[in-house]
Amino acid sequence: MTLQAMVKHIELWLLDKLIPYARNPRTHSDEQVAQIAASIREFGFNNPILVDTNAGIIAGHGRLLAARKLQLKEVPVIVLDHLNEAQKRAYIIADNQLALNAGWDGDLLRVELAALQEVDFDVSLVGFDDNELAGLLAAEDAVPGLTDEDAVPELPQTPVSALGDLWTMADHKLLVPQP
User: Fold this and answer.
1) Which end of the chain is less congested by CB atoms within 10 angstroms, N or C?
2) Does one domain contain both 56 and 90?
3) Which residues face 12 on adjacent strands?
4) How far apart (Å, rounded) are the C-alpha atoms in residues 68 and 3?
5) Based on the number of CB atoms within 10 Å of its own CB, is 67 exposed (0-12), middle (13-18) or buried (19 or more)?
6) H or E segment and range at residue 11
7) Which pLDDT score, from 0 to 100, does residue 8 have?
8) Is residue 72 part of a domain?
C-alpha cells in the first residue's frame, strides 16, 4: 500500500444505509454510547464513520449507536475503497487498539482540565468518569519534581521484597540476605 490511498472527501449518508459488521469484537456500553452522543451534541459529528463500498461499517460502530440515540437522519462517512477483505477485518481491530496504546502526560492533562474548569466548561464531556476526574484534579496542587530530597517515604504495609530476593539493577545486584 502506498500513501496514495488517502481519503479525499467526506460524504453524508442516511443512517439507515449503514450496515454494522456482525463480527465486530469491540463492545459499547449504554454509558459509553451516551458519552459519545453527548460529545457529538457538544462538539459536532467530527469523526466520520468509516465504511466500505457496500456500506459496511469498518470503524465507527459506537458513533452509529450514538447517532441513533440522537435520532440523526444522516451522518458523515468516509468510504474506504482501497482495503481488501483481510485489511478491513484487521483495521476494525487496529482502529480501536491503536488508540488504547496511547498514554497521557498527567501534568499537561491536569493543566488542561483545570483550565477548562476555570471557564466553567463541563469536563464530564471529555470521557473521564467522576472518580478519575476527581483524582486528576485533586493532584492539581502537587508540583512535580519538587519533592524534598531528604524526605523519606512511608514504609508500605506489605513489603515488596522478601528474604532471599535478588534485585538486578543495570550492572548492580542487591541480595536481601536470609537471617
Assistant:
1) C
2) yes
3) 76
4) 34
5) buried
6) strand 11-14
7) 81
8) yes
